[in-house]
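Progress against Task 2.4 (sequence-to-structure conversion) is shown through the following example record, which the project officer requested during the mid-term review.
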Amino acid sequence: REGEESRQGGMTGTELLAICRWSVTVFASRLVRVAAGDANLPLTCHACTYLFRPSRLPTPFQSAERFLPQACNCTGVVGCKFPGGGPGRLQPCPVEVEAH
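Structure tokens generated for the chain above:
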């Protein structure tokens, strides 16, 4: 049932669906760039370390998702926007919000 906690780390079905949707979007954007022969695409990509792995992503995911890369926008030889290696979770980049 939607909204119930799954047996996987207390995540809801909605959270898992959001993780899958985000992972597919990032992965597909990289595949499009590979298929197009993008010369700016780095040879190494660390995104695979985080895609489809709830234990490596911030929780709650839905509130952190907007601070994560929404597509593969890496450039240059070592320009992957995802941190490489390490046993920890992917940390969202805090963006300062302008006070009105």
